[in-house]
Structures are given as structure tokens and as C-alpha cells.
Specification:
CATH topology of the largest domain in chain A: Aspartate Aminotransferase, domain 2
CATH architecture of the largest domain in chain A: 3-Layer(aba) Sandwich
Largest interface: A-B, 50 and 50 residues
Strand order of the largest sheet of chain A: 1-7-6-5-4-2-3
Number of helices of chain A: 15
Function (chains A, B, C, D): Catalyzes the cleavage of L-allo-threonine and L-threonine to glycine and acetaldehyde.
Number of domains of chain A: 2
Pfam family, one (chains A, B, C, D): Beta_elim_lyase
Order of helices and strands of chain A: HHEHEHHEHEHEHHEEHHHHEEEHEEH
CATH class of the largest domain in chain A: Alpha Beta
Largest sheet of chain A: 7 strands, mixed
Oligomer: homotetramer
Radius of gyration of chain A: 21 Å
Shape of chain A: globular
Protein name (chains A, B, C, D): L-threonine aldolase
InterPro entries (chains A, B, C, D): ArAA_b-elim_lyase/Thr_aldolase, Low_specificity_L-TA_bact, PyrdxlP-dep_Trfase, PyrdxlP-dep_Trfase_major, PyrdxlP-dep_Trfase_small
Structural class of chain A: alpha/beta
Mean pLDDT of chain A: 96
Low-confidence stretches of chain A: none
Strand content of chain A: 15-25%
Subunit structure (chains A, B, C, D): Homotetramer.
Chain lengths: 358, 358, 358, 358
């Protein structure tokens, strides 16, 4: 039972099928093909407006490329201090942005508050020694599994507009956030001020399918050159596009995300009911962050269940992980089976009981 | 009939099958899986020694990463002036090498001569204003479709050793060169002084499967960080490795390359027999570079045959493309059908006849 | 009365005289001159061993070049979170290091503790997503005006050795620290494990005279290329070297530093005696960081005395700046006149009295 | 007798005097001082319009900064293939431009022709693999000592406008070109389409005084950040500005340049009169490029006269350097004494005679 991440399984059946079908025959290379054109049009439909779309094979590349179009080499990009871009990409954004700086702000559950961002920008010295702030990057779903609601997004968008920041959304779990909010892609992005989006499909059914969706034409201008130069334009590009075709067909992507979120909810509710277990913060998408007793941790691991410990850095004020406890992350995905959730909860339940009996 | 490039078709059947099979189930992400381990071991077998292997989704990324491990930001990398790395990658090597410089030397059919490389290195001022030469990058097969023989490779290797250059081979068409020479991978690489290799599979049956094979441990040290940082470590990494498993199984890769070379040979011999047609230089792998009359060019295009014009930059001394002629490139691949070659030659033959009759 | 910084005055008389003398006649450009050679030898004497010396016109360039030789583009450099390199150089280190990352740790008075550095390094995940730590950079004198003693330096040096970090010292106020400790340059650097030093003279009498002194040969290898490439090798290089000749002659540099420290001590003691004034931390070199009442702040400003407010970020635990207070920095230099210090203290004294009377 | 370069002497008397005067007293650091303000205004007067001015300590830094503001990391900068920026700066432009590429075109005496630039731009493939051309950089005076006349500049300016290239002028010998043409600074720059200028004073009397003069506001936007980040904003900035004050006062700079050009003319005419000596191309500013017999070369060297051999790369078609000849460069400066020119010509004359007698 693998709750370690949502990238341990392969592609979902419709996505794999789309690859197999697109593989046949000869087509123009480097994205000048029919499938890529169709998928670009599909993105425009989904976002209810003209968009520029660029493809990438990893979320890291998508994020780094997106940021490189928004932040000059001497600029500053604000993000949460646990953001994937600052913590998990071996400095890819700094590389692609040519030495621009990421600066991380605090916030519960890895979410930023608009007021904190505004206050930070205002606190910066207006001097040449200070790299000027040029972009804000948030993760929707956040690294802590939380979802910015539409008002929060609007507030962040307003801060960006006021201070001349490009607004980037790392949507590695875009679909999970979307179905959690029950809104449209447009409502969750450009209608709230988002300028450029890393649209991830890999974690939700894709094989290696990431897209950069650009809502501000000037940010799209050089992205084809930047992508090529980053080795991200694959020759048989239709095979990336095809994955999106399979992903979008029949709302497959939304169904996948709904399933993942539902599994996480079940997991979350089941765990929270156990004595000695509490949630670090609410479960809003497909990730659960419980604080559990060591005994439960041992019981789960003994049962071969895979998941990871998590940092306490973004706990709410006043909350902390006690001596005999650990904060962990459990991730559900489109491929998580209901029976595995039940199994895990049973094991957890008996683990806790055993502990109480000891 | 598509003779424009060897990247217009998808993956060959065994490679696609390997992807489909590897897709099932959950595995550790980011290359910590069983398939990746197996493929790494397979590379060691193929090259008859320990090697470090890193995967990439494009040849551009593989080349740029390889060069970035060999050339510091203040260094110079020597290549042919028509090399893919200098001409076709939108500056990816300069990006990955952080502003190091590529310098292009001339040579017939886009091949470098060891003496020219040595003379160039010796001609450089020994002064701080001069970026110091740190690497040599050759393409095997060359951009002009020529194959360096084992002695030529050894001579280049010796120049590299003498002058402290890392020796990089861009093997986008590695298999085509290998079967052309009839030697082993070891003989064509590290036994001749090659330090680091871009091993391409995409053009010869892969979907998006490139590997960097490193024969000098020091060059491998940081490549995992560099790859991550370049967004080249895909989460579902086993799907890249799986392609190589399908590629290597039952010598599928060699069979594919032999077929492509045979098709190119047939094409080359057929065209060379036509009046008014001559080869710019010999056909040694899977690409043919004939100089053809405009009439023939028109006839082929009228028949819907796809191929590209080529630069005259690397013609042998004394040779030139006349007024009514054009130098073109025709590429055969593992997927080229014998009947298409025959068809093309028939069309060509009647095109030339018609022209003579006019 | 300017206590804002130690870079508001020009060069001291001996340094200026050395420039004027070196200006006459023709000499080889770009550092191939006699004066540069002499000064290099002088550095070796001063540090009691062979050293490699490179010149720069700004401390920012010296720091950034030094770090670029120690940290690869994918590496991490640890420093205090208020360090000049992370806070005051508009990302110069990130630019010169090609996107490597600076990470700032806390510490009272902008000093790092060896244990904190060791704990931080150990806390980093051993994973490819994590940029590997490659260097430690400290400022001696620290940004808070504190001086690392020899044991503290040795402890930091030991941490660097244990974890494979290059040890960089930003010595913008090297002389001030040296006379504060009363030790030799060797004792304060390589004998405590320092690998590379930004040796600043500009703040202590130079016009624009900074040197990078390298104690580890491998770090010096490419610094001439890196300097040239950064536009730091000036053509009339002897004019930089000449400044150091004037600076070192007759221990002028040590006399300057002693004077500056003495002035700061007088200022510090005088201020600390005033009611309502306390030092944020001790005065150890040429900078004073008092917490003063607003009334005093107003009185000093009204008298035209220049100085700057300072961040509270590095106050000792438990200490804080109250409602009616402000933390400020006053800097003394070689050019600070004793009478100005007395004047300032008089103004301060009557400012405080007036305030009490109100 | 040093004819090796115009950077072997120190500063001229008025420039040195200005430094000494500006050195006294305290002023705001980092360019926020009165002298810097005055000099900025002076530049505006000299160029008869508003300009943005940034200072640098080397021509390499000035060029690299200027280009970095005009060329994005994925762009191409066109220059002559012997240009200082491509050949003599250890890749500084590539470093500051973050891996953008310089491409060198041929041309007699290191001058570019507008038609050649236009033809080159048109020849580039319109494809993502091709870095898009973003700037043209010329040297006025050229690396071969030639001066672009106003029509040639206008023609280059027109090509830049047509193709969207920023037009950069490397004016390391700006004054020498100016007095050679007898025009105004405005006529030689922005009135002919120049967008950004490296204005060198170091070779013509300065100590280390270079300025970037920007005629297009958008190119100036980030140059202060870029300068800081490159370590080019010196703390005691008024000492750079002061040099320009001395340089411009009483048209000192023009007098210096006129003297240098006159010395070069005398040298050139004297040498050209000698049997067996011819000029590679005309002498138009302060540099002479004669092709001389080996015997003369030996005689000059035996007399201790310093100068450098030169590349034959930019000889006019048909011209070449014979077996017993060598192409050399002799540089005159503001400090060249008439008697040294006469002395050199005497030595040359007798050297040639002796040779004839042998």
C-alpha cells in the first residue's frame, strides 16, 4: 500500500491508450502536428479564452520555465518557504531564472496570506542592493495539501497587480484543487489574477504530461525559445499532447481527482477518529497530514504501508508535535483503492488499541 | 513518404510494448525502481565496463547536460561549425554550461580532423582573455551523415588527452554508426578516448529515450544534481528506462539501425546512378546528401516526398552546388519501407528523364 | 558628522600618495607589472605562506568571485541570514555562482554558531532534490559588528572540514577584526581553516582596493578567468595594487583599524552610560549598535548626525526594541575624528536630559 | 618606447588631479553624491539630450553590462568576428547575458558592412532551434583601427531598426573616432541609431573610467540592478565620476584624442614610405597596422620598441602577408611623445636600409 506520493503509479488507462494510438504513423516533429494543435485548442476551451500553451515532461521544468518568463535574472520571486519550487527542485528555478532569487515566507499548511505577501513587499528596501520583487508563486494545492479558496486567490491576485508581480500558480495538483472548490478552471486562475500556470497532469493520470498555460501574452513571448533551450521540446511531441487528449476526454481528469480527494477524505476522517491522532490542518484535497503516536507509526510501517514524515515548519501557532508523536503525510491518488484505505484504517485502529493496551 | 527526419514516426513496437508493460503497478519514483536499475546494468554489459548512466527526454538535454559536466562556465568547447550542439539547440549547451562558449571548426561533411583540432588549440593565445579549451564534442554519425572510423576516433581521443579536453560524443545516431563500422560500443567510445556519450534511442525506435553514458567518474559526480535542476528527472522514470529495455532486447536496436542504413544505401545508390545527380560526400549511415537538379527536386516534391535542403558549408574543396542544382538531405529510419525507397527512385528516374526530354 | 558607514570618505593620505606615484610612466597592463608582483609577495609575507591573490574593485565582486570558485552552480552556500552576501549585493553571489543558492541561518549579532551550522547541514535531506552544501561564508567582522574569536573560527573550520564545505571569510572589515583580536592574519584565517578570504581595504583607507586571498590552491585555479570574465581585471591594474602598497606600508592599515575601533569604543561607552540607552550586543570592532529612545534619535538627527536604523532580526533571545525605541548602527572609521565622537556624545547627553525634563 | 597599447600609462594629469580633489571629505556612497550627479548632467550636455549613465571600472564590464540589457539569455548578438567582445573578454558578454550567443561576421579591418549584417539576419532560419538575433555590437574605432563614417553608421542603424536589433557601440576609443570624423557625439551615436554606448575614457587619459550611456530608456531600466549585481557599483563612486569631470574639462579628452591620432598618422606615413612596408588598411585613428619585413620587425624589437603582431583574418581580399613579412599593430596614445615616433621611424628607416644592404 503506497501512500507515499501520487507519482508512483504509471499512466491511467485512457492516457496510456491515447499514447498507443498517437504512436502510429508519421507526423511532423517538435509540436507541429495535428494532435498538439487540437490539445492547444482544448486548453483554450477549458480556460474559456485564448491561452498560450507549452509542454514539458516534468513539473520541475514547467515551474522553472514559467518562472523564468516572469522573473529577470536580478529579480525576486516570493513563495511559501516550503514551496516545491524553493525546496524540492534542486534549484531548477534559480538555474532557469539565471540566478534570480526565491524568497520563502511562512504560513500555516504551506499557504500564503495576501496580507503577509503585501507586508513583505512593502518591507523591502527601495535600493539597488535589494533584488526587486517580480513574481509571486503559489502552489494550488499547497505543499501542505490545502486549497486556496477563490477569495484568497483574488486577494493574492490584487497584491500582485498592486505591486507589479507576475502571479504564478504551481498546479501540480490542479485538478484536485479544482474539484475541491467545485469551480471552473477560469475561475481558479486568470479570473483571480493568475498570469501563468504550471498545469500538471502527471500526478493525476498522466505519464509525463505537464503544460505551461499562459494568460498574459508578454510572458509567452519567449517561452518557445526557453523551452527549446532547456531541452524540453521533445521531437515526438505528439506523444505528450496525446496524453492530455486522453486526460481531458470524458472529464477523465476530473473523475480521477474526485476519486483521489474522496479517498483522502475517508483516510482523514478515519484517522482523525482514532484516539491520540489529530490533523495538523484540515484535509482539503488528496493529501492528509495527521500527527500520530509513534506506536501507530510503527504499526503502519510494520504493515508495509508507505508514506513520509513531514516537517513541522508550517504548523498553526500553538500547535506542536509532541515527544511521542510524528507528523506524517499520506497521499491518495486516482489509483488508490478504497479497500486499501479501509485496510490502512483497520491496521491503524488496531495499532492504536494495542498501544492503549500496552 | 517522409524522408525529412528520423523522428517523425513514433516508437517501434517492442519499445511501445515495454512502455505498456512497465506502466502497470506502483514503483518508486525518480529512478529508484527496478527497471531503471536493470537498464543501468544492461548499459554496463553493452559497454563492457562500469558506466554511469543518466536519462533524458531529449537529445538536446542529453548533449547540454553532458557538456555542462565537462566544461566550466569560463571554458571553451570545440565542435564542428555545423554541429547540432552549436546550430540546432537554441543555445541549450550555452545555457547549461552557464555561458561557456562553443567554437565551430570547418570540415567536410561536418566531420572534424584531429589535426585541425590540435592546430586550433595550439593557435589559441595563452592569456586570461582567452576562454581555455575544455572539451571536444563530435557527432557520431556527423551532421553530414558521415561516420568517424576507429582510427579517426583514436586520433581525436589522443588530441583530447594531450590538451586536457574532455571528449564528448553526440550519439543521436549511435546505433547507425555502430552497425556501419561493425564494431562494439566499447570500441567506438571509451576504447578510443571518449569520456562522455549522448546515447540516443529516440531516432532509432524510442519514444523519448536518451541516455548520458559516462566513462570518466569525475564527469558523473554532479550529473544527478544537474539533471534534477534541469527538470530532466521525470517522476515516473521507469517509463524512460523501460524504453531502453525494449530497445536492447533481442538486439532490436541493431536491427533497426541496420535497416535504416540499408534503406539509405539503396536510396543513395539509386540516386547516384541518375544523370545529373551526384553525392556531396559518401553515404555511410542512414542519411543521403545528393546534389540534384532543380527539375528532380520539383518532381520529388510534386510527388509529396518530404525532405530538406541542406547547407553547402561543408562541401569538399572544389565541389560546389551549381546554378540549377540543390543540395538536399534524405533520411532513412527503422520505419522506412523498402517500397517507399523504390517508389522514390522511380519518381526520381522519371523526373530526370522528363527533364532531359524538356 | 557621518557615522553612516565607513565608505563615505575617500582614500587615506598614504594610499592616495601611492596611487599618485604609481600613476607615472608606462607599465604592462592587466596586472603583469612590478607593483602587482610586489604586492602579491607582500600578501604572502603577511599571511606567512604562499597565497594566490586576485584583485577586485568592490567587496561585492570579491565576495561573489570567491564564492563562485567554491560553490558549483547546483550547490548551496550557508551564511548568516543577515550576511552582506545574501542581503546587500543584489544577488551578485547568485549571479557569479550561476544560480547556486545562499541559505541564511539565524544567530545573535549576525554571528553563526558552529553547532548551528553543523546541525543545519545534518538536517538536509540526502536527496537529489536538495542542493548539496558546498561552502560556508562568514563575515569577520560580522554584519552586527561582532568579532569571531579564534576558538569560534576553529570550530567553524572544523565543521567545514567535516562536511566538505569550503570556508569563506568576508573580510570587508578584516583589519578591524584583526586588531580587535590582537592576533596575526594567519591565525585568523588559514590556521583556523579558512580557505578563501575577501580581504577588504576600501573601508579602512583604500580607494577601491579589494583582494581575494586564496589558501587552497584548487580554489585559485580558475579565478583569473572568472575575474576577467566578470570585468574585474582593470587594465591599469597597478593602480589597485599600489593602494595595497600604501595600505600595508608602516602598518598603516593596522593603525587605521585601531583608530576606528577606539573611536567606536568611546562612542559605545559614552552612549551606554546614558539613561534609556543600551547596547543590542557588545561593541567589538568599529560599529556600535545601541537601542536608543526616539527622543535621542530625534536629537541626533536634528544635529545633522548621519547613521542608519538597523533590523531587530538578530537580537539576543528575550531582548527586543520597545515602543519608544529604535535600534541603530553607528560606524566609526579611520577618518572619524575624536572631537566628533565627543560632540555626538554631548548632543546625545543633552538630548536625553531634555527628554527627561519634558 | 611602448606602442603595445593605449592602456600602459596611468591617468593624465587633469584626471589624476580630479581624483585627488574629489578624495577629500565625506560624501554619500554608491553614486548618490554631487560629483556623480554633475557628471551625469555633463553627459546629457555632451550628447545633447537626456541620457541614462552608468559607470564601470573596465571596458569589459561596460560592454558586458550594455549587452546584457539588450540581449535576453536566448538571444543572439551579432558582431565582427574579431570584435573585442567576442575575442578578448574571456566570455564576459556570455556570462553577463546568461549564455546568449555572440556570432562573428567577417569584414576588412574588423569593420562590418550593413549589407552583410542584413544578409546574415535574413539567412537565419525562422525556427525555435535558432537563437533570435537581438543586438548588433560594433566597435568605433574598430579592432582594426578603422572608423565607421556617419553614413556607414546610419546604414547599420537602419538595419537594426528594420530587424529589431538593439544597436550597441563599443566606444573604448570613442574620442579617437570622434575627432577623426570631426562630428559631435550626438551625430556619431543616437542620431545614427545607436541605442547604447560603452563610453571609454581609460585608454584616453582615465585611470579606470568607463561609462555606459543609454539612449533608449527601456534598456536603462534594470542597469542599476545589473551593475550592482556585477560588483560594478563601487562604494566611493565619486572617484569614478571625478575622472570624467577631469576628462571633459576644457575639452581635455578631445585634445588627448587628437594628439594620439596625430601621432598615429605620423607613424603611419613614416612607415608607409619605407620600402617593403605597406599598410594592411588605412590609418584612421590612433592605431597603425603595417605589414613589415621580418628584418624591420627584428630591428624594432632589438631597439626595445614594444608592439604586437596581429591576425591576418581581416585583410582585404587579395591581400596577404608574405613569407618574410609580418602584420603588426602599433598604438599611439595621449601620452605618446613626438620624439618617440621620430625615434621609431629612424630606427625603422635604418633597419630597412640595413636589410637592403644585406
Amino acid at each position: 500500500m503506497n501512500f507515499a506520493s501520487d507519482n508512483t503509479v504509471g499512466a491511467s488507462a485512457p492516457v496510456l491508450q491515447a499514447i498507443v494510438e498517437a504512436n502510429a504513423g508519421a507526423m511532423a516533429a517538435y509540436g507541429n502536428d495535428e494532435i498538439t494543435r487540437r490539445v492547444r485548442a482544448r486548453f483554450a476551451e477549458i480556460f474559456e479564452r485564448d491561452v498560450d500553451v507549452f509542454f514539458a515532461t516534468t513539473g520541475t521544468a514547467a515551474n522553472a520555465l514559467a518562472l523564468s518568463s516572469a522573473v529577470p535574472p536580478y529579480g525576486l520571486c516570493i513563495c511559501h518557504r516550503e514551496a516545491h519550487v524553493i525546496d524540492d527542485e534542486c534549484g531548477a528555478p534559480e538555474f532557469f531564472m539565471h540566478g534570480a532569487k526565491l524568497t520563502g515566507l511562512p504560513g500555516v499548511g504551506a499557504k500564503l496570506k495576501a496580507d503577509d505577501v503585501a507586508a513583505y513587499v512593502k518591507s523591502l528596501p527601495r535600493a539597488v542592493k535589494q533584488m526587486p520583487p517580480k513574481a509571486l508563486s503559489i502552489s494550488q494545492v499547497s505543499e501542505g495539501g490545502l486549497v486556496y479558496d477563490l477569495d484568497e486567490l483574488a486577494a493574492l491576485g490584487a497584491v500582485c497587480r498592486e505591486h507589479g508581480l507576475a502571479f504564478h500558480m504551481d498546479g501540480a495538483r490542479f485538478a484536485n484543487a479544482l474539484v475541491a472548490l467545485g469551480c471552473t478552471p477560469a475561475e481558479m486562475t486568470w479570473k483571480r489574477g493568475v498570469d501563468i500556470l504550471s498545469f500538471g497532469a502527471t500526478k493525476n493520470g498522466g505519464l509525463m504530461a505537464e503544460a505551461i498555460v499562459v494568460f498574459r501574452t508578454d510572458l509567452a513571448e519567449a517561452l518557445d525559445y526557453r523551452s527549446k533551450r532547456a531541452g524540453q521540446i521533445i521531437s515526438k511531441a505528439r506523444l505528450i499532447a496525446a496524453q492530455f487528449e486522453g486526460y481531458f476526454a470524458d472529464d477523465h481528469w476530473l473523475a480521477n481527482a474526485r476519486h483521489a480527494n474522496r479517498m483522502a477524505k475517508a483516510l482523514s476522517e478515519g484517522l482523525a477518529r482514532l484516539p491520540g491522532v489529530r490533523l495538523a490542518w484540515p484535509t482539503q484535497a488528496n493529501e492528509v497530514f495527521p500527527i500520530i503516536p509513534h506506536a501507530l507509526d510503527r504499526a503502519l510501517k510494520a504493515a508495509g504501508i508507505l508514506y513520509n514524515p513531514w516537517t513541522e515548519l508550517s504548523l498553526p501557532e500553538g500547535e506542536h508535535v509532541g515527544e511521542g508523536e510524528v507528523l506524517v503525510r499520506l497521499v491518495a491518488s486516482w489509483a488508490t483503492r478504497e479497500e486499501d484505505v479501509h485496510r490502512l484504517l483497520e491496521i491503524a485502529s488496531s495499532g492504536v488499541s494495542r498501544h492503549a493496551a500496552e
